[in-house]
Amino acid sequence: MSELKYRRVLLKLSGEALAGEKGSGIDPDTVQLICKEIADVARLGVQLALVIGGGNIFRGLSTSAKGMDRSNADYIGMLATVMNAVAVQDALEKMDCPTRVLSAIDIRELCEPYIHRRAIRHMEKGRIIICAAGTGNPYFTTDTAAALRGTELKCDAIIKATKVDGVYDKDPMKHSDAVRFDELSYDETLRRHLKVMDATAITLAQENSVPVIVCSMFGGHIKRVVCGEAAGTIVKGE
Ligand code: UDP
Which residues does 68 contact at the CB level (< 8 Å), separation at least 6? Predict the structure, then answer.
């Protein structure tokens, strides 16, 4: 295990990571692909905690903009993350990776409640923990949940795996001259409003000195990051 740069990692996946080409819902083939990447990382002996978004199913903010009460909308969003967590659990266990879904909202027929000490114990036993229902509170995002869990579980790094292979100065899908950063400070990320994670999440990571790495979710990039190879963009203190 000496080749590992990060021994305990919080991996954040947006809900869209599970949607595939359709852009919404859960696409089982895409879930398989992403879970294969996760299983490859787990087999290195890395202790893994996952936080999965719900934007492929429901986003509280955009729905409240259409008239729904924000808290109600956000609770639906949190339930969406539980559905995604169960889909990822199913795929990982079919790949022989033991997992536990730990939910910030009590849904005891389906998953365990999130209990800090128990979460750590699961990881020490080699189980991948899937933290569902975000922070359990409305007005937050799963990016913030990732920063919170990554900090309290004493993870060495938060990896945000996305469709894009890092952080760019402008949207690389729209601008062919967009430049990718190898490294950024928390302050610069916040000052330039770069699309890494929302400001609450970045601030939490900064206050607790947890590096955030943005990389591609496919092509073995997560594994490369964990092994300390150059991949993606790292956001850390100056
Ligand atoms: N959400 C929430 N509190 C949390 C985490 C999530 O209220 O701590 C709700 C919020 O409505 C959000 C939705 O769950 O829009 C889905 O999460 P998010 O948008 O972060 O998912 P992602 O963009 O990563 O797919």
Answer: none
